[in-house]
Design a protein that fits this description.
Layout lengths: L2 H15 L16 H5 L3 H13 L3 E4 L5 H12 L4 E4 L6 H4 L5
Parallel strand pairs: 1-2
Length: about 100
């Protein structure tokens, strides 16, 4: 993860912590190696989906493309959970224009 993305992500986590617990704050850690970020196991998948089911909403940092984040966004939408996708760039129309209520 690029240094500027880490700084932006860390700032976002600090701000979100003012409103409630951020369950995936470790993702923004500069100490997490690229290999560790890429390691996807059933244990992590099941844990992350349990967190998502428990959450009232999903705040997704989408500056860097990620199949995992896209999957979580799709699951949250499928479960009728509100999704806020945050990016410093122009986002996909698929994220910007889904206005289901």
């Amino acid at each position: 993860m690029a240094a500027t993305t880490l700084l932006s992500t860390s700032k976002s986590f600090r701000q979100l912590n003012e409103y409630g617990q951020v369950l995936t704050e470790h993702v923004g850690s500069s100490e997490l190696s690229a290999v560790a970020r890429a390691a996807v196991t059933k244990k992590f998948h099941d844990r992350d989906l349990a967190w998502l089911q428990e959450a009232e909403c999903l705040v997704a940092e989408v500056t860097t493309p990620s199949l995992g984040v896209g999957y979580e966004i799709a699951r949250a939408i499928g479960w009728s959970k509100p999704v806020l996708a945050s990016s410093g760039q122009v986002m996909s129309g698929a994220l910007c224009h889904d206005r289901r209520q």
